[in-house]
Amino acid sequence: MEHIIYQLLCVVVGFLYMKSSLGKIKNPYSFYRVMEGYSLIPKGRIAQWLAVLIGPLEFMVGVTICLNILRFEGIIAGAVLQVNFIVLMLAHMNQILPFGCGCFGMHAPEKVTWRKVAWNGVYLGALIVLFIGI
């Protein structure tokens, strides 16, 4: 039974990563604008490359976790991404980001709230559970 729950959690976490990546893959320029809103990442070529690479990286993390292909590495990469996302959100707590937080698509101006940080914390917690279960 534990194995089934673990596999189900892998599918859910992996699917969420893939879903989160789609908007970034479809429109990296919009994600670049989201990244500019955080003001912690230097504008220019580095930010442009990050905007292009983060979406496919998230998608690959989701695939590796779902399909158990390099799952350990996918979980580690996912945890590193989540920690970075949480740090960026905490640095902008209660501020309105002009293009949203970039969590699940690019939106209109959006305020960074504890709820959003908590969601990312739960997601990080799920990755930790998966890591411990390997």
Which terms summarize this structure?
134 residues; mainly alpha; two-stranded antiparallel ribbon; 5 helices; 75% helix; 3% strand; transmembrane; membrane; Methylamine_util_MauE
Give your account of this protein's structure.
The chain has 134 residues and is mainly alpha-helical. It has one domain (2-129). Helices cover 75% and strands 3% of the residues. It is built from five helices and two strands, in the order H-H-H-H-E-E-H. The chain has a two-stranded antiparallel sheet with strand order 1-2. The longest helix has 25 residues, at 2-26. The chain is globular, with a radius of gyration of 15 Å. The model has no long low-confidence stretch (mean pLDDT 89). It is found in: Membrane. It is a multi-pass membrane protein. This is Methylamine utilisation protein MauE.
Present the secondary structure layout.
Blueprint: H1 2-26, H2 28-38, H3 45-67, H4 71-91, E1 96-97, E2 110-111, H5 114-133
Summarize the structure.
The protein has 134 residues and is mostly helical. 75% of the residues lie in helices and 3% in strands.
The amount of helix comes to over 70%
Give the overall average pLDDT: 89
Contiguous uncertain segments of 5+ residues: none
Helix/strand structural class:
mainly alpha
- The rounded distance between the terminal residues' Cα atoms is 15 Å
- The order of strands across the largest sheet is 1-2
Number of strands: 2
With helices defined by DSSP (H or I, 4 residues minimum), what is the helix count? 5
Chain oligomer state: single chain
Label the overall shape: globular
Structural Rg: 15 Å
**What proportion of the residues form beta strands (DSSP E)?**
under 5%
Give the SSE order as H and E letters.
HHHHEEH
Domain Methylamine utilisation protein MauE: 3-132
Membrane topology: Multi-pass membrane protein
Protein name: Methylamine utilisation protein MauE
Keywords: Membrane, Transmembrane, Transmembrane helix
